[in-house]
Amino acid sequence: MKLRFLSLFLVLICALSGAVAAQQGPLRIEITEGVIEPLPFAVPSFQPESAESGQLAGDISRVVSEDLTGTGLFREVPASAFISTVSDFNAPVQYADWKAINAQALITGAVNVQGNSVSVKFRLYDVFSGAELGDGLQFSGTTEGWRRMAHKVADAVYSRITGEGAYFDSRVAYVSETGPKDARQKRLAIMDYDGANVQYLTDSGSIVLAPRFSPSGDRVLYTSYESGFPRIYVLDIGSVQRRVLESAEGTMSFAPRFSPSGQTVVYSLTQGGNTDIYTMDIASGQSVRLTNTPSIETAPSFSPDGGRIVFESDRSGTQQLYIMSATGGEPTRISFGEGRYGTPVWSPRGDLVAFTKQNKGRFHIGVMRLDGSEERLLTASFLDEGPTWAPNGRVIMFARETQGAGGSSTLYSVDISGRNLRPVRTPEGGSDPSWSPLQK
Amino acid sequence: MNRFLTSGILIAALALGACTNPDRFGADGAGAGANAGAGANGVVPGSANDPTSAAYFQQSIGDRVLFEVDQSNLTAIGRATLDGQAQWLMTNSDYQAVIEGHADEQGTREYNLALGARRANAAQEYLISKGVPPGRLRVISFGKERPIEICSEESCYAKNRRAVTVLAGGLTS
């Protein structure tokens, strides 16, 4: 019977890779719209274990459900369909009752609030094999951080069923936007991956662009015009203290990203109208020039092992993607499709590069292998740009700007199969998202 | 005490000077108060009628040059405008200028920052070649962050692909 659950999992994976397999030949490009049947699960409201636990028990089970359904891979069986209820976390599960409503996975939990602290336990059952999948787990924290505990439960469920890495317990730094296109106000913000718990890190007094998380998630790099000219700042998220990185008078620096060690920044520097790529040791401020051409070289991103850098250059006449050693040297061009390619970002797994593509007046978010093969466009719109990877390398977030005088920018996420395109709710408009690593 | 007063007046003048450039990123300084309080020669200092004013530079000389899609080469019209700017800057030598490069929204953010820098630099190099001392000019790029026209059509894009010479100083004369 265990096989049944396993086979569902396999169906899921095959459907995903089926979308990939539809691509043949390195230059063949199409927008994939793979369709799969989401796996039905039931999450009876978690059991409150103390008088004051009722509210959070309901909230936590709701967020667990939202995390799972938000992936497009799962579908919640509504409580109105339940035949039996779960009134005791430790009581045996009536598998037949869950089978009857075709809930293939059952998640039960219990929440115990004591003052400011809360602990959450959960169990995951494979209904059709009539067994628990993995061991029950317990997480503890503060009531203020209750959403993180819900995300941790959902992460465990997601990972056990899909075999993929977790990603719900993560944050996103982005630029919060208000106002029309000719007077847009921008400020740095940080939020949970699902748009909850937004916190503003700067005011809107000067233009801020493209925050980028450090590998440990404690700092962000970003570009600000607060000195009057674009310069790179490093901001400590905990203390909200920032400092500007070294830059010479008369230059502009922007497009920073951390190295995997967190000690080096790769960025673009413009001098005399020409833009090239440099690295800088954050502690010493010592910089090294990696490219030296009259063309535009920008949007650099490190490989996860720190050995290489993918970037964009218009040295061929149009924006294209290139990979070079992290110490510079002759780069290899990897993008050869029709149109222009920019903003490459190396996937956390190391196997793919996500990019923005501009072709025939449309913008796309896409992914390709490191040699440019298997290019896949995941989105299409008037203006999509700036992909960032979820920590597990399965989901991409980006910004979509709408057309015309009333246009605004909204964050979206999409699966790398091209499925499950959905807006990320933020209090204001959003652009330039940067997904954090999984929180510790 | 006297000295303190002077600097106070200077600050007021600077503040006023900022007002004569109503839309730093915009075109056509709207309503420069044509004849209000005209002096003996009919010219209000600092107004668009005063040939040494920033408003005059903006409206009569032309403070901006436009570019083709994804290009930073100066057009014939652009060079003619810059000839006028160079001549004016040489005459009014107490002004400094920042040349702001811009791009339309059809492009990625980082690339457009670099493209705006190319455009600002092209205008700067041309002005220098016509004799404007390099020390009086600075460049900055705003990429696609500050369009002046907000429709998503070529009529707007054409005006957004620009390098604008923004004057500073020149108030002591």
Write a concise keyword list for the protein shown above.
heterodimer; A: 440 residues; mainly beta; seven-stranded mixed beta sheet; elongated; B: 173 residues; alpha+beta; 60s Ribosomal Protein L30, Chain: A; four-stranded mixed beta sheet
What does this structure look like?
Chain A has 440 residues and is mainly beta. Chain A has 4 helices and 31 strands. In chain A, the strands form 7 sheets. In chain A, strands 1, 2, 3, 4, 5, 6 and 7 form a 7-stranded mixed sheet that branches. In chain A, helix 2 packs across helix 4. Chain A is elongated. Chain B has a domain of 121 residues: 60s Ribosomal Protein L30, Chain: A (2-Layer Sandwich). In chain B, strands 1-4-2-3 form a 4-stranded mixed sheet. In chain B, helix 4 links the parallel strand 2 and strand 3. The longest helix of chain B is centred in the C-terminal third of the chain and has 21 residues. Chains A and B meet through strand 15 of A and helix 4 and strand 3 of B.
Summarize the structure in short.
The complex is a heterodimer of chains A (440) and B (173). Chain A is mostly beta strands.
Task: Lay out the secondary structure.
The complex is a heterodimer of chains A (440) and B (173).
Chain A: H1 2-21, E1 39-42, E2 47-48, H2 54-70, E3 74-76, H3 95-100, E4 105-114, E5 117-126, E6 131-132, E7 137-142, H4 146-162, E8 171-178, E9 185-192, E10 199-200, E11 208-213, E12 219-224, E13 231-236, E14 241-244, E15 252-258, E16 264-271, E17 274-281, E18 287-289, E19 297-302, E20 308-313, E21 320-325, E22 328-333, E23 340-346, E24 352-359, E25 362-369, E26 376-377, E27 384-389, E28 395-401, E29 409-415, E30 422-423, E31 429-435
Parallel strand pairs in A: 1-3, 1-4, 2-4
Antiparallel strand pairs in A: 4-5, 5-6, 5-7, 8-9, 8-31, 9-10, 11-12, 12-13, 13-14, 15-16, 16-17, 17-18, 19-20, 20-21, 21-22, 23-24, 24-25, 25-26, 27-28, 28-29, 29-30
Chain B: H1 2-19, H2 54-62, E1 64-66, H3 76-91, E2 95-102, H4 109-129, E3 137-143, H5 154-160, E4 162-169
Parallel strand pairs in B: 2-3
Antiparallel strand pairs in B: 1-4, 2-4
Helix pairs in contact in B: 3-4
